[in-house]
# Entry
Amino acid sequence: GVVSTQSTGISPYNGQLELLSGCLPGGVEVLTADRAQGRDKECVIVSFTRSNTEGRVGELLKDKSRLNVILTRARSKLILVGNSKTLTNNSLLKQLIDLLRERKWVVPITETF
# Structure
């Protein structure tokens, strides 16, 4: 396991920080992608937050430098949470999700929250 102080939650959007903070145990730092720059932790939980029937990913997730920060903060464990149907409308995220599926690292969650 990982101690909560060695974990962080990251969301690209300010509006999701409070919600994400409420879902994670105490001691887990919650940051936007911009504030996570240079803040490496053992475990990083990323909430991509985007989910819509139109497949709109949003401008922040189209930014390669933000995605780079999001995906490179974890020292040993990276957990990505998001709607793959929406996220695969972005070519870079589609490549990532395809790779994760190919390696059987995707765990589907069908429950609605």
The first helix runs from residue 17 to 23. The longest strand covers residues 74-81. The mean pLDDT is 86. The helical segments are 17-23, 59-62, 64-71, 84-87, 91-102.
